[in-house]
Input
Amino acid sequence: MNDFTYETNTDVDAIARSLREAGRVLITSHEKPDGDAIGSCAALARCLRELDIEVEVWIQGPVTPNLAGLVEDLEVRHAPPDQPSGDADLVVVVDTGAWSQLAPLEDYLRARRDRVIGIDHHRRGDDVAARRLVDPTAASCTQVLVPLIDALGVPLEAGADRRGWHSIAEALLLGLATDTGWFRFESLGAEGFALCSRLVAAGADKNHLIRVVEDSDRPERILMSARALGSIRFGDAGRSATMVLDESDFAEVGARPEELSGIVNQPMSVGSLEVSVLLTQSEPGRVKGSFRSKAPSEPGSTRYVDVNQVAAGFGGGGHIHAAGARFEGSVAEVRELVAAALTRALGEAGFEV
Output
């Protein structure tokens, strides 16, 4: 019987003490890192660099050029094709605790579990780290990191170049902004807005981040967006939408899987819609699903779809209104499975379908 519970089992001060005593720290996050993963890695790396601690940042899987440009001040390594050499005193895994998202470095992490620290804001995870800071109420993993950086005594302005870019504050804002849909999602409460104010006051350039992250797409992404929207299928009396992109779309357009961030949100502008799913198949037999749902229309209402639960039914997970899962099969087969799951979830939430 597995009695493991994915929750905090230490405290910020204890983690801060361990980091101060470390000579070399390796930081990593989930495959195909998003803004929160990149921001969390960068914020902690810049903080430790200020303390003269040797830091390695390992990115697992592909990363978009715009996000890569935001960490050009750091020496970033990629797995695959590379693997860490030598040993780190500590390994910090940010923004995930799921083995399914850590495949390129799984062997390395399993062999050093006693030295692994997990820092996360997701509700589900595995026994990846011996010590964990997990706060599912935080809007981003970067928000979870702030008390730790404060405990280490490093100012959020640290790391900035002459333009004011590449600071700890910028990295923290990157995670907070992107994981809340640029401050639109329900997950961002009063504490998150207060943190945003603090980060901007510390020099984080919101306009610069928007230009780099949101306004730097290649034409191929727009073409893939058009194909996804062209494939849209509404169901459940207009309350659900599924979209598909298959191998032929990638081949004909020349897009990359990591360029598709945000496309799943586009149908959410439809008033009746409660949940949107984008299914992508960029290689034979493997499908990635991105799930999004709207917050309740009235305070305190329970009429919403928890896509974390829907994705969990397929071995995935994430947050209440944003989650993901992976499937074996074709996008057509997976679409039918997902559509049926959405119908059930909408019914359980009290919607007429």
About this structure: The chain has two domains: 12-214, 219-348. Residues 219-348 form a domain with the Diaminopimelate Epimerase; Chain A, domain 1 fold (CATH 3.10.310.30). The CA atoms of residues 64 and 258 lie 6 Å apart.
